[in-house]
Write a structure and sequence with these properties.
The protein is elongated. Helix 3 links the parallel strand 3 and strand 4. By secondary structure, the chain is of the alpha/beta class. 52% of the residues lie in helices and 13% in strands.
């Protein structure tokens, strides 16, 4: 039984690259892919994907002025079933992370041989993710770090107290380590739980473990 080719949309502000990629897909794998359209404008991407009922979108991340991550987010909002492979000409992992958080299903550097794109596209179309090992390691590392908005609410004393709670110290021991009275220590613990938005010490300790705070060599003893 013949399987209909997957419809691909290419979003890239370098028109020659987009045209070359379209030619590659149709010449190398025309039985698997058909190019539904090309656009060099972020604001046109979601509409083009929707009008073509695209199965896949290949999106360049470095697209001024809005950026490819905006195109990815809009594509996913308009047509969630479309799978998105993000491309970037830079090695900026933070940019790649933003693309994945926007909804991209995979990421590859533009430095990759164009022929190598065929297999990742099929992988992404099959519902799997594609990304370089360095990006995966970066994502795993960042997942274990407290979010910036949380860290902004905590001063050095709060972080020290958080670690002491995570290590299971009682209020009296915390007071000794922090050079305060037990009454003050209780108030400090209550204030920290409020900042962490957790109901008790057990959940505060679990949160510290999730973020790997006890693994940090510079954390106080």
């Amino acid at each position: 039984m013949n399987v209909a080719p997957l419809v691909v949309v290419i979003v890239d502000d370098h028109e020659l690259f987009a045209q070359g990629l379209a030619l590659l897909l149709e010449s190398k794998a025309g039985d698997r892919f058909t190019v539904g359209g090309l656009t060099t404008r972020v604001e046109e991407a979601a509409g083009l994907v929707e009008s073509c009922a695209a199965d896949l979108a290949i999106v360049d991340l470095a697209m001024p002025p809005l950026g490819g991550a905006v195109a990815i987010r809009q594509i996913k909002q308009r047509r969630p079933s479309t799978r998105v492979l993000a491309l970037s000409g830079s090695d900026d992992l933070a940019l790649a992370e933003r693309a994945l958080r926007a909804g991209a299903d995979g990421f590859l550097p533009k430095s990759a041989d164009p022929d190598v794109l065929l297999s990742p596209l099929l992988t992404v179309a099959a519902g799997l993710r594609v990304m370089p090992p360095a990006l995966l390691e970066s994502l795993l590392a960042s997942a274990r770090k407290p979010p910036d908005e949380l860290l902004e609410r905590l001063d050095s004393q709060d972080r020290t107290l958080w670690v002491l709670i995570a290590r299971g110290l009682e209020t009296a021991d915390i007071a000794t380590r922090m050079f305060v009275s037990e009454r003050t220590a209780k108030r400090m613990v209550a204030a920290l739980l409020h900042k962490l938005d957790v109901p008790n010490r057990t959940e505060a300790a679990g949160l510290a473990g999730h973020y790997g705070l006890l693994d940090e060599s510079d954390m106080p003893l």
